Amino acid sequence: MTAGHVASVVLVVAGTVVIVAASIAALLAPDKYARLHYVTPVTSLGAPLLGVGLSVGAGLGLTTASILLPVGLLFFSSPILSAAIGRAATQREGRGRPEPPE
Question: Model-level pTM greater than 0.85?
Answer without folding.
Answer: no
